[in-house]
Amino acid sequence: MEVLDLYDSTGTRVCGTVERGTVAPSGTFLMLTAVMTLRSDGRFLMTRRASEKKYAKRWEITGGCVRSGETAVQGAVRELFEETGIRADVEDLISCGTFRRAGYIHAFFLLKRDVPDSVLRMQAGETDAFRWVTTGEYLALIGSHQTIPQHTPLIAAAYGTYIGLPYPDAAI
């Protein structure tokens, strides 16, 4: 059982926790974290969600819930290792902003590293495949409905300057 801290709208921890899978009480938020791993050739890592997950077989960047007692960046480091096998330190991640959406605060980080495929391993029950994509390939995945739609504007806002995506006009 994972326990998650509750946050206010500014991203400050407030008193209280919930079990993962529980909706945050009114006026509070859960913290999610995401990491884009970007190689020097401009390609970035996408993993495919396992068949037993919500949004099964859709492509996404690495991420998940921040556990109770973790900071957002600590959660990002943990999720990166659990889901991909990539080891990073807190200092290796570049903060790319925090966005609030529907009961969640999303904290985004960037890892600039040339990771060999031999390092990557998928987490059973979470991820089942990986690929390094260009921005054009990512847009094609979006166009063919192979990504998670609500993630697209967040990824564009957080990483657009790094991968050449324009900031979306739609409000987040």
Task: Note down, in words, how this protein is organized.
With 172 residues, the protein is of the alpha+beta class. Helices cover 20% and strands 33% of the residues. The chain has three helices and nine strands, in the order E-E-E-E-E-E-H-E-E-E-H-H. It has helices at 72-84, 135-143, 152-163; strands at residues 3-7, 13-19, 30-38, 44-49, 59-60, 62-65, 94-101, 104-112, 127-133. The strands form three sheets. The protein has a four-stranded mixed sheet with strand order 6-3-8-7, sandwiched between helices. Strands 5-4-9 form a three-stranded antiparallel sheet, with helices on one face. A hairpin with a 5-residue loop joins strand 1 and strand 2. The chain is globular, with a radius of gyration of 15 Å. It starts with a strand and ends in a 9-residue tail after the last helix. The mean pLDDT is 93.
Condensed summary:
The protein has 3 helices and 9 strands, in the order ββββββαβββαα. With 172 residues, the protein is of the alpha+beta class.
Instruction: Give the % helix.
Output: 10-25%
Unreliable parts: none
Counting DSSP E segments of at least 2 residues, the number of strands comes to: 9
Within the largest sheet, what's the order of strands? 6-3-8-7
What integer is the average pLDDT? 93
CA-based shape: globular
Q: Given the helix and strand composition, which structural class is it?
A: alpha+beta
Cα-to-Cα separation, first versus last residue: 30 Å
Q: Profile the largest sheet.
A: 4 strands, mixed
**β-strand amount:** 25-35%
Radius of gyration: 15 Å
Continuous helix count: 3
Q: Helix and strand succession?
A: EEEEEEHEEEHH
